[in-house]
Amino acid sequence: xxxxxxxxxxxxxxxxxxxxxxxxxxxxIGTAIRYWFHYTLVAFAWLGVVPLTACRxxxxxxxxxxxxxxxxxxxxxxxxxxxxxxxxxxxxxxxQFLWCPTHLMVLLQPMRILEGMMQKMVQVALMxxxxxxxxxxxxRKTLMKQVTLEMRLSWKMMTMMxxxxxxxxxxxxxxxxxxxxxxxxxxxxxxxxxxxxxxxxAEELTWERVNAGSGWFLVFLEHVFWVVSLxxxxxxxxxxxxxxxxxxxxxGLGFEDYIEASHFEGLITTILGYILLAGALIVFHAFxxxxxxxxxxxxxxxxxxxxxxxxxxxxxxxxFPLICGWWLDICSLEMFDATLKDREQSFDxxxxxxxxxxxxxxxxxxxYFASFILLLREVLRPGVxxxxxxxxxxxxxxxxxxxxxxxxxxxxxFILSVVVFGSIVLLMLWLPIRIIKLLFPTFLPYNVMxxxxxxxxxxxxxxxxxxxVLPALLEQGHTRQWLKRLVHAWTFTVxxxxxxxxxxxGDFEEExxxxxxxxxxxxxxxxxxxNRIPGxxxxxxxxxxxxxxxxxxxxxxxxxMCVTLLMASLICLTLPVSAGRWLMSFWMGGAVVHxxxxxxxxxxxCWLSIRxxxxxxxxxxxxxxxxxxxxxxxxxMILKTIVVAVLLAGVIPLLLGLLFxxxxxxxxxxxxxxxxxxxxxxDWALGVLHAKIIAAITLMGPQWWLKTVIEQVYANGIxxxxxxxxxxxxxxxxxxxxxxxxxxxxxVSKGVTPLLAxxxxxxxxxxxxxxxxxxxxxILLAILSFQIRQFKRLYEHIKNDKYLVxxxxxxxxxxxxxxxxxxx
Length: 824
What we know:
Layout: E1 4-8, H1 18-63, H2 66-70, H3 72-76, H4 82-130, H5 137-184, H6 198-204, H7 207-210, H8 217-253, H9 256-261, H10 265-290, H11 294-331, H12 340-349, H13 351-379, H14 398-404, H15 407-439, H16 457-476, H17 479-497, H18 501-504, H19 508-513, H20 540-550, H21 552-588, H22 595-619, H23 624-669, H24 680-700, H25 705-716, H26 723-752, H27 760-803, E2 804-809, H28 812-823
Antiparallel strand pairs: 1-2
Helix pairs in contact: 1-4, 1-8, 4-5, 8-10, 10-11, 11-13, 11-15, 12-13, 13-17, 15-21, 16-22, 16-24, 21-22, 23-24, 23-26, 23-27, 26-27
């Protein structure tokens, strides 16, 4: 029972008058139309006007004719290529919004701090010069200490301001919802907001203000105007000027034919323009420094830093992964029975797609290499990998490095990275392929050709493996932990073989493994000669110097590492594929199977084998009884998992894929005079993908019974799997709904329709169109139910607004009386 009940006016009728209901309904419809018009205008401005304006201005500037400037207003109103122009304009806006604000703030803040520090130093010097005071030696030392301390404090202040700025940018995303709620409440502080105060405007800019809510329509128009102006300025400064500088240089040098043969004339010309612009800025900056034009020198320095950072970003994020991707492709040609001529033909036919795919492969390679370096840092002694940048370091900021380090250091680092990454590709890809072709001539090439006799056959299975099988393998197999233990074991072994254990792993492991009684310092079978290299006990810097002077241990360490990487690459390229081919031979016979399937099945077999071996090794010291109990426990768990997998990964996806085929695919693709063919294997594969999408949407949606059940099943995991709960609460309801969705239309079309004595054509039409028809009926019923609930809420809202007087507590006197009895 509710603790309070509504108290209505005595003159409230039993049913609301029709005119009140109609007036409330008209008011609600008017509010909905107003909000619809409001958000439609906002979406039209931000997703239509702003991107379209940016794209049309971009095309106008790069047309190179005066007539295009004169016809620009008419081009803005043109309806040709609207979607393509909007998408291109959104890309330009995204680059501008990601690049300009943050990086300009990073550029200007250190310069302001350094400028203030230099002004203080100049003021102190002028004061001493005017007073004609010659400081003593002690005063000079004190002054130098103060200057040094102030520089350190300024540098710390710069670092703290950078970190605060990054945290501030992250906090803005977190507090936007709270600010929007406060804006909806109509806070009085909104009246003091000034659009010209950029920092405060950025902090107080809420969703309602951006979208012209709460009376901010003029501010919204001002935002749109400023964004269009900034787009124009961005295109003019960062695209138009560099491109034409590069174009005039190319024409002057006579390299037009070479640039046009690259298929990327605009990109290469713009990059060349940036390079020439950077050189011109360096010359002008040196001239301004020579003639002591301080403001001009400062402005030219900022422009040079912007151009420098832009070029370095293109080099690090664009060029370096592209080089890695092409080198990976070249070194793996024999693995896929391809040639350079094939790659040249594919590049000529689709240069943009080919370039993007190679860049994507290179980015994946760089990402996994960086992840492996982070794993090495967790295993090795801190400071061993001093020559590699630590991406987890909170003080590491690549933009700051691009600003402060000279260009020759960036070029040297880039060349060194290309050499290292290219050598690793040669060691782990090209050389293993040559060894495999030498030892097993018939093993290569891999079969990766896309062929299809049925609709979406190969594509669906590849999506299934990439989206379901491989992520589940990587998640459930604890691959990272296994790899970490394997690296630790290899480092431990090699460290003791080469007497580098203290250098690689440190002495803390030995101290932890020492017994409490230190009587036996040298246990049998272990050589305690880790300090044979001078300097290993004197710190990491001394150890670096000692190893570099000797050269022998570090050379052997590099050789062992190369041999290990080669052997690991050979195993990864041969063992999973061989196991997968052997398994597929029992199922597919002598048919040629895509190597993606063989590799995935082989990886699962290897994972299961390693998992079983590790569990048996961990159980063996506990005795035979414990092993039998564990085997019984795991056998029961495996049987439960198989039953759950058959239901959730077999039956439900098959029914879901078949229903999707009947509702959407067959009515759209198969005419009425043809018979649709159903492939259960393909329906199951597509059903798995659909089930995964539905589960993800369910977990992201509101709380209801299906979301609660899925979260509980996921929280229990495989070891604590509850078969009865899954079958009763998840599998049975879902299977019943899917079977009803499949069987009821079939029963109606095959059992009820023939009783009506319809024509054969009508019978075929009913059989083929009943599934989408019933889907539309269900959707209409759901919409009708939703509208009925909304109308009931509207009815209660009108009644409460007009006749509600207040609320009264229920059973208040009885509770107070019982409380008085208990106290007495």
